[in-house]
Every structure is written in structure tokens, then in C-alpha cells.
Amino acid sequence: MKICFLGCGNISQAIIDGLLKRGISTSDIACIERNEQRVESLSAQNLQIIELENLASMDFDLVVLAVKPKDALSAEQNIFKMAPKAVILSVVAGIGIEKYSQPGAIIRAMPNTACAFGKGVTALYAKDQNSTAFKTANELFNEVGHVLALQNEDEMHRFTSIIGSGQAFLFQVLNTYLQEFEKIAPIDQVDAKTMFQDFVSSLGDSFSQEHNFESLINKIKSPGGTTQAGLESLVKNNLDKILQDAFQAAEDRSIEISNEK
User: Fold this and answer.
1) 147 and 175, same domain (yes or no)
2) Most exposed: 29, 124, 144, 246, by fewest CB within 10 Å?
3) Boundary of a domain, candidates 92, 127, 153
């Protein structure tokens, strides 16, 4: 599998990191990137840096389009000018397939940055999900995590809000935890962050043993205790609604982006 990334920001770097950890050769990954700092970083990973003009001379299975939404449509057209037979895998949020000049040659993906650790969750959609290209895209993201093939492209908006953006929402919550923990932690903040890292990791370990949050909560709380008091405060302050509103805001923005010209 040979892949070219057009745009090598955070999500591309996460996918690349995950692929390299899986043993994918650097000779099978090429990058088109103008940012000098990113070029230096990519070069340090022994990745190929190529120009858009060279795209047609190299036989890529997929060209990953990972630019800002406002640049996506022009970038797609430039790709096809240079490589008319290219198959584009778009990871651009909010831009529907029908917006592109060649919808039949576009596969949409919404991965998250957990791909860097081989634990990504990626939604995939294409008009033809039996094509070789779609199967190749599936293989790509299975290398760095899990894949959910969507039957309806509109589902991508909700997926984007929950999985694509959702990590950031959880990081925001955990940042509050860390700030509170550091107030009582040892003076050596490196040790404090190591302790907190284990605390966060243990949440995943607990869920891996029992996939039921209510049961996990019941193992911690006791009637009339401190945990019960805190949980009642969360319910009183509508934590569920706060998170649901965040999901909805992200989904609404994804829809807005798709409707922008």
C-alpha cells in the first residue's frame, strides 16, 4: 500500500505515526507539505517529501486530502489535474462528496488522533463501498485502529462531533481534573503528571474489564458518601446536557461547513 498525504497537519501526522508503529515502510509514505517546520519534522522521520507536480509519476493507492475545509475543493481539482486517475481519501471535516468535482473518485474518512497509538476510530463513506479503493481505505485505517463504514453520508456529521471532536471535549474535562490534582500533588510536577497519567489509563483498564459505566460507578460510590454527593451535583448541573450541547454544536458546525461555498 502506497500513500501520499497532501497536507500533513495533526490528523495526517497521527495516521503516519500509527502506520510507522505498525511497521509500514517509510518508502511507502509520501508527503506534500509547504510548511517548513512540518517538512523538517517529516524529513526527520525519513518520509519522502514530494511536489504536487510529481504526483502522477508515482503509483499511489490513495492520496489523503488533509487540508483546511476552505482549501479542499481547489486542492482536489489540483490533484486531478496532476494525476487524473488518483483516488482521493478526504479527511476534511464537513465537505460532502457531492461538493467535489469527481464524487465517484472520493472516499470520505473521519479519523481521530488516537490513530497515532493504533487505537483510532474512523468512519468511512463512499458511493461504491465494494470498490478496491474503498477496501484499501478500510485496510489503511484498520492498521491504526477501528473502522465504521457508514451507509449514509449524513451520519458523518454526528460521528465528527462525537468521535472526531469528542476527544478534545474529554481532554478539556481531564484538564480540569489535572489542575485540581496539581494543587495537592507533590512539588515535582513531573511526578504529578506521571501519577495522573496512570489515573487516566486506569479508566480504560476498568472499562476493558466491564463495559458498563453504571456498574463501574456503583463500585466506587456508596449511599450518602462523597462520590454520591459529587454525582448528585453533576446531575443537578446537567452534565449530560452540557456534553450533548457540545456534540450538537460540533455537528451543527460540520453541517454549516458542508453548506458553505
Assistant:
1) no
2) 246
3) 153
130 shares its domain with 188: no
The domain in which residue 44 lies consists of 3-153
Is there a single domain that holds both residue 39 and residue 118? yes
Q: What cell numbers appear for 170 in the block? A: 474529554
CA 196 to each of CA 6, 172, 178, 244: distance values in angstroms, whole numbers, following the listed order: 36, 15, 7, 26
pLDDT greater than 90 at residue 56: no
SS3 state at 238: coil
CA separation for the pair 256, 161 (Å, rounded): 13
d(CA 87, CA 104): 9
Cα(105)–Cα(84) distance, rounded to whole angstroms?
10
In three-state secondary structure terms, 201 is helix
Give the DSSP H/E element, type plus range, for residue 30. strand 29-32
Contact (Cβ atoms closer than 8 angstroms) between residue 77 and residue 99: no
95 assigned to some structural domain: yes
pLDDT at 188: 67
Whether 138 and 216 map to the same domain: the answer is no
How far apart, in Å, are the Cα atoms of 163 and each of 202, 215, 229, 231?
A: 21, 23, 30, 25
Taking residues 42-59, what's their average pLDDT?
91
Count of domains for the chain: 2
Q: How far apart are CA 144 and CA 125, in angstroms?
A: 17
- DSSP code, position 163: I
| Model confidence, pTM | 0.87
CA atoms of 243 and 50, how far apart (whole Å): 42
